[in-house]
Amino acid sequence: MNTAGLDIIINASVKYSELNGIKYQTDEQIIALKFALKGAKGDNGFQDLPVKLHKSYEVFHLLCGSEPQVFKTNFLEREGITFFTLYRDEATLTEAEIDLYIRIMKDEFDHCLIKDDIDIATQDTYRKSLKNNLLKRIHKSRNCNSFWAFRSGGKVFVLNK
Description:
Elements: H1 3-15, E1 21-25, E2 30-38, H2 49-64, E3 71-78, E4 81-89, H3 95-109, H4 124-140, E5 146-152, E6 155-160
Antiparallel strand pairs: 1-2, 1-5, 2-4, 3-4, 5-6
Helix pairs in contact: 2-3
């Protein structure tokens, strides 16, 4: 298992309250960034979001000289909430790229983002402890090919599914 993917989900879930959740599918080497937005897709201009993010993604990787493999998006609407998911390959996804997506989401849809506004202590010791505990659980488990990280009440929860 590549621990770079675990680093990404832990760091991003601690750093960005705008992320509703992060899923790391180790068998496919895909990281899914999940956002929750108030309102329906058609009512709030969310339908343009994949195009905006894809254009930024293309320019970002052109400037970085990298060749990413996966960029997919998905919408799911449930009772007045739109869940937007961005899928990226773990090999070329960086924290700088996640930061770009977060900035776009905040610039365009900050008023609609459902986020955990409780600040988490983002010290390195906290992240290292979280990662070490997760790695211990992974080694004990026999079937760990999908991980979820999400924030609630100022805490990060990492689950294997």
